[in-house]
């Protein structure tokens, strides 16, 4: 989702699948510009292996994901902080969003749905996380 306030984008939130994570939500702190070697399913490969030829090496989110992990507790699932979204479609999307949004973006990796991680459960978990992110956005404006 993209969250607006006063006609301006406050935060873009991206969600991607971490297929190896079973009961784990991963909050990504930064997007990386270089190191994209694999082609996507359509055969796309970023020119020069990077998102933006003139972009910085990495861009940090304005959201402090480490603090967010400490402030949120969800029964039945762990939440961790990460600084590497994987140099594939997720990282590419995140970096680009951070680049154009001046750091006002977030990326959340979620586990596949299962009997313990249902769509309803995951939806409520994402709602809790995004509300905490918006609190940080509000604190940054003060």
From TrEMBL:
Signal peptide: none annotated. The keyword Phosphoprotein does not apply. One of its GO terms (molecular function) is cysteine-type peptidase activity. GO terms for biological process: proteolysis. SUPFAM superfamilies: Pyrrolidone carboxyl peptidase (pyroglutamate aminopeptidase). The keyword Protease applies. Keywords: Hydrolase, Protease, Thiol protease. Pfam families: Peptidase_C15. Belongs to the peptidase C15 family. This is PGPIL protein. It comes from Semnornis frantzii. The gene is Pgpep1l.
């Amino acid at each position: 989702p993209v969250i607006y306030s006063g006609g301006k984008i406050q935060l873009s939130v991206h969600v991607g699948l971490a297929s190896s994570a079973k009961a784990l939500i991963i909050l990504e702190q930064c997007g990386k510009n270089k190191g994209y070697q694999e082609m996507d399913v359509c055969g796309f490969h970023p020119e020069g292996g990077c998102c933006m030829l003139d972009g910085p090496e990495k861009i940090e989110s304005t959201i402090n994901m480490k603090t967010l992990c400490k402030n949120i507790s969800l029964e039945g699932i762990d939440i961790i902080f990460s600084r590497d979204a994987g140099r594939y479609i997720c990282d590419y999307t995140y970096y680009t969003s951070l680049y154009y949004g001046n750091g006002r973006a977030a990326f959340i990796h979620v586990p596949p749905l299962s009997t313990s991680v249902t769509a309803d459960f995951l939806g409520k978990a994402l709602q809790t996380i995004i509300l905490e992110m918006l609190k940080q956005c509000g604190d940054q404006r003060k």
